[in-house]
Structures are given as structure tokens and as C-alpha cells.
User: Which sequence fits this backbone?
């Protein structure tokens, strides 16, 4: 069922997901963590297309809508972090432990 | 019916935004949640009498399990909105927030209820969309006070949950891939109703992979250890009524996702694989909760770790399997929602009165607030699983399922952990409830609204411990049939 091209696409998508995760753990700026999530989502969409020719339309639209809102809300949060901590370095976010 | 149930919280939320005074916004909010409760209960009755409902070109549906989740969400959101009036009223009177913030709070509150109801009634693996929406709306509620701690909590919550949910999406894609091979590329290939009928023919290898991703993904949202790290932060920094909603219903929504996939995956991989994974994660959640509960300094975080523990117990119940295990787990979802919300409401009163979240700085609650103190003690006894309260029944059922199923080591560890949690819980709570209050704290309850909300929940906690109505048992039996 999986053609040669789509198996290449699948491995590319898995590496995108891993790259996204790596960016999230290795960068300290809050905005880079958001980008990491977007890279992971991109990888997943590539995976979905290569495995199954895409999800049903309703689901696909819903996921796009969710990712859009997620980025908006993360934008708001980064704005708030910048306002309260006067930097977007996530090293500052270390007060809640235990 | 389902459409109206979903529309009511949205319309209420929008109306709340266009109000002019505190009185108006409170009236609209309470009216909206009463209507949501009535519609939710009538949906439950309808499903109970007439079986599964499917509408909107198969997009929305309600079977016994969805109806059960809708029941939990509508009850908790109703009491929570009553409690919000007392709690937020106190905050307004003490100039912590202004009218604009109050309106935004109620708008987000009702949107949050909408997303959780949507989780229950989606006939689709697009359940993912609804669960991601709950994350986004609740993040805005967690950041409500916009101080340093709440900003940190909201950021951690959004990042950890979104990454977790992304893994769940991958699990969903894999399930779809397995389904497409059997059903062909139709729009229906993601619907529960069509999936569950052919689940036995799915490729076991793909379903194993899918279930692992789903368990990690939705497990992050449900607060299973070791993905629970966002949970104590989010619970302790959000406004208390929101904490009650998060712990009572949101984690149940995520658990609902896991259990749905469990029933699909088990049909193709056999029970061994899925049960073992759930038992391991369940025991891990119980074990991690123990030291954090014993050495806790913040009473809201104490409750949060207790939520991690109870999610572990539900996972264990499903993992032990059999009719008893699943019955116990499903009943535990309801009991935990009621009891944990009750606990959050009572510590919310304590927070308003004493103005601190530290356990060491609070003492003599029974002297300053007799009713809240008594309810706090009842809730603590109930949440740690002592008879005759409701959680005892469900924990006992799960435990007997464990011994019946031959999971001796897991059951003994389960017992040990809940004994240690009992000790830790009471070590901390007796310091708070008894003793003499510090000077400068005037005796008296915070508000009648908050007490009213707590009374409703106390009824559930006590009654279900001694007597479970026949219809309720029958309802849970139908849910068990859906899951197995």
C-alpha cells in the first residue's frame, strides 16, 4: 500500500517530529518552543498525507483551526511572559517546583 | 438535542460579554448553566431510554459512555458556576479584579464547558480537536490573575499539553491508517460507530504503536505520571472554581479518550498488551504521588497530586479489566469528579479567608469556618478512600478486580500506596483544620453561594457511598458494555 515515495515522506515526517522536539528542549527562548510545536505539527501532517492520502475533510479542517488558535494563544502567552518577566527566556520560569 | 446542548454554553458565554453590571453577568451565567444542566440531564435520560443517538450527518453522537461524560461535565460545571459567583464576588469586593475581568472570566468559563461537552459527543477520532480546544481555553483561564506564577503555570501547561496532544494526533493518524485498509477511504473511516464494528481486523502491530502514542498523548492531558508535571502548577495557580473544573472534568475527558482507544486497540491486539501498559502507568502515577503528598507545602498542590493518584487508580481499574475493573474505573470517574471538586471548593474558601496557600500558615479552620472545616474533613476522608464515602466503593471494586484477575503484585502495591497517601494527606490536613487560628482572622464563612455549591456535592459524596440507585448502576453497566 505504501509506495516508495510515500515511505520517503514518512521518514522525513518522523525526522521533522524529532527535530521539532529537539528544538523545544535545546532552545531557551519561549518563541522557539512555539516554533518547535509548529515543526512537529508539520511533520505529522506530512506523515498523515504519506500514510493515508490525508484525513477526512472535517477532521483536517478542525485540526487546521486548532493549530491556528493554538499559535494565537501561545502568542498571547509569550506577550504576557515578556511583560511580566521582561524577557522571553524560559530559564526565568523556574519558580513553581515540588 | 445535542446541538442545543452545545449551543447553550456558547450563547451564554457571548451574552456574558455584553453585560453592563456584576448582577447581570451573574444572572446570565447561572441561567446558562441551569439550562446546560437540564439539557445535559435530558440527553442522558434520552440515551438511557432510547439508546444511541446520531445526528448531524454522523458528526455528533451520544452513546452510553458519552452520556456518562456529559452527566459529569454538566453537574460539575453547574456547581462550579454557583461557586464562581461567591468566589469571584469576594475577589471583586476586595478589588483583586474589576468588572471587565469578571466578564472575561465567565465568557471563558462557558466556552470551556462547551469544549468539554464537545469531547463527549464527537463521533469521531476528531475527538483530538475537542481535547486540544480544552487546552487552549483553559490556558486563558489559568493565566487569569496574570501574576508571575500564573504566567509560568500557563506556559508550562500549554507547551507540555500541546506536545502530548501532538503525539495523540499521531496515534489517531495511525489508527486511521489501520482503519483505511479495512474500510476504504471514506469520511466514515474515523467514526466510532464504524470503527468499533471492524476493530478486530486491524493490523495488531499498527494498533500497538497507535495505542502507545495515544496513551502518552492523552495521558499527558489526564495527568498520568511521568507526564503530570504541568498539573500541580496549573491547578494551584488557576482560580479555584477553574481548578475544580480542571480536576473534576478535564482529566476525565482525557481519560475518556484513552478508554475509547483502549476498546478499539484491545479488540485487535488482545487484552494483554493494553492492560499491562495501563497498569504500569497507573502504578507509576500512584507511586510518584506518594512523596509529593507527604512532603507538600502548598495545599492546592496537595490536591493536584491527589488527582494524579486518582487518575492512576482509574488507569489501574481499566488495566485490571474484566467487568469489575472497568465498572470500578467508570464509577471512580464520577466519584473522583464529585469529591475532588468538593475539596477544591473547600480549600478555595480557606484561600479567600487566610490569603495564603501554605499549609503551615493555616490553622484552626474548624474554629473560623465551622461548615467549611467540617466539609473539608469529610472530603479528605472521602478522597483518601475511607468508608462510608463513595470513593471507597469504587476503589474496593477496582482492588477486588485486581485480585480476581491475578494481578497480585500490582494490587498489593496499590494498597500500600493508598495507605501512604492516606497518612500523608491527614498529616497535612489535620495541621490545617485543627489548632487555634492565628490572630487577625475574623471567624465566619466567606459566602453563602460557595456553601450552597459545596452542599450539593456533599450529597453525592455521602449518598453514593451507602446507596447507589439501581438506574445509575444500570447506566454504568451499559457504559461497561460499550467499553468491553
Assistant:
Amino acid at each position: 500500500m505504501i509506495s516508495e515515495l510515500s515511505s520517503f515522506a514518512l521518514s522525513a515526517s518522523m525526522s521533522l517530529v524529532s527535530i521539532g522536539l529537539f528544538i523545544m528542549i535545546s532552545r531557551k527562548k519561549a518563541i522557539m518552543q512555539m516554533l518547535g510545536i509548529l515543526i512537529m505539527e508539520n511533520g505529522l501532517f506530512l506523515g498523515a498525507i504519506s500514510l493515508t492520502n490525508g484525513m477526512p475533510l472535517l477532521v483536517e479542517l478542525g485540526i487546521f483551526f486548532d493549530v491556528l488558535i493554538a499559535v494565537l494563544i501561545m502568542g498571547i502567552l509569550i506577550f504576557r511572559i515578556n511583560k511580566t518577566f521582561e524577557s522571553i527566556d524560559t530559564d526565568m520560569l523556574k519558580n513553581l517546583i515540588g | 438535542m445535542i446541538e442545543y446542548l452545545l449551543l447553550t454554553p456558547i450563547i451564554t458565554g457571548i451574552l456574558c460579554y455584553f453585560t453592563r453590571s456584576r448582577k447581570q453577568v451573574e444572572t446570565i451565567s447561572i441561567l446558562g448553566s441551569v439550562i446546560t444542566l437540564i439539557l445535559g440531564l435530558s440527553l442522558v435520560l434520552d440515551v438511557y431510554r432510547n439508546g444511541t443517538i446520531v445526528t448531524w450527518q454522523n458528526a455528533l453522537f451520544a452513546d452510553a459512555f458519552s452520556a456518562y461524560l456529559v452527566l459529569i461535565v454538566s453537574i460539575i460545571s453547574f456547581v462550579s458556576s454557583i461557586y464562581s459567583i461567591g468566589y469571584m464576588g469576594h475577589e471583586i469586593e476586595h478589588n483583586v479584579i474589576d468588572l471587565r475581568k469578571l466578564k472575561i472570566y465567565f465568557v471563558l468559563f462557558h466556552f470551556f464547558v462547551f469544549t468539554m461537552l464537545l469531547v463527549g459527543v464527537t463521533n469521531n477520532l476528531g475527538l483530538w480537536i475537542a481535547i486540544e480546544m480544552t487546552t487552549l481555553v483553559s490556558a486563558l483561564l489559568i493565566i487569569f490573575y496574570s501574576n508571575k506564577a500564573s504566567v509560568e503555570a500557563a506556559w508550562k501547561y500549554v507547551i507540555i499539553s500541546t506536545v502530548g496532544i501532538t503525539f495523540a494526533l499521531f496515534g489517531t493518524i495511525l489508527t486511521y491508517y489501520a482503519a483505511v485498509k479495512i474500510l476504504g477511504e471514506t469520511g466514515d473511516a474515523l467514526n466510532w460507530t464504524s470503527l468499533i464494528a471492524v476493530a478486530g481486523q486491524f493490523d495488531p502491530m499498527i494498533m500497538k504503536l497507535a495505542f502507545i502514542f495515544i496513551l502518552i498523548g492523552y495521558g499527558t492531558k489526564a495527568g498520568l505520571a511521568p507526564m503530570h508535571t504541568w498539573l500541580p502548577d496549573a491547578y494551584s495557580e488557576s482560580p479555584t472554581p477553574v481548578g475544580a473544573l480542571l480536576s473534576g472534568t478535564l482529566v476525565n475527558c482525557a481519560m475518556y479518550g484513552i478508554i475509547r482507544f483502549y476498546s478499539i486497540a484491545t479488540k485487535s491486539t488482545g487484552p494483554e498488551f493494553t492492560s499491562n501498559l495501563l497498569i504500569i502507568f497507573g502504578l507509576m502515577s500512584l507511586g510518584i504521588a506518594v512523596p509529593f503528598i507527604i512532603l507538600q507545602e502548598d495545599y492546592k498542590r496537595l490536591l493536584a497530586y491527589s488527582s494524579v493518584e486518582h487518575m492512576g487508580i482509574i488507569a489501574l481499574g481499566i488495566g485490571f479489566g474484566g467487568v469489575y475493573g472497568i465498572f470500578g474505573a467508570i464509577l471512580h470517574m464520577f466519584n473522583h469528579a464529585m469529591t475532588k471538586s468538593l475539596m477544591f471548593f473547600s480549600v478555595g474558601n480557606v484561600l479567600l479567608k487566610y490569603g495564603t496557600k501554605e499549609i503551615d500558615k493555616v490553622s484552626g479552620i474548624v474554629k473560623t469556618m465551622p461548615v467549611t472545616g467540617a466539609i473539608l474533613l469529610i472530603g479528605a476522608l472521602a478522597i483518601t478512600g475511607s468508608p462510608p464515602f463513595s470513593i471507597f466503593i469504587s476503589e474496593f471494586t477496582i482492588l477486588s478486580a485486581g485480585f480476581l484477575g491475578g494481578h497480585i503484585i500490582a494490587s498489593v502495591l496499590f494498597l500500600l500506596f493508598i495507605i501512604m497517601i492516606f497518612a500523608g494527606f491527614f498529616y497535612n490536613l489535620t495541621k490545617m483544620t485543627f489548632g487555634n487560628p492565628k490572630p487577625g482572622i475574623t471567624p465566619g464563612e466567606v459566602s453563602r453561594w460557595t456553601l450552597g455549591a459545596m452542599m450539593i456535592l456533599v450529597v453525592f459524596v455521602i449518598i453514593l457511598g451507602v446507596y447507589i440507585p439501581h438506574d445509575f448502576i444500570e447506566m454504568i453497566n451499559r457504559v461497561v458494555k460499550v467499553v468491553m
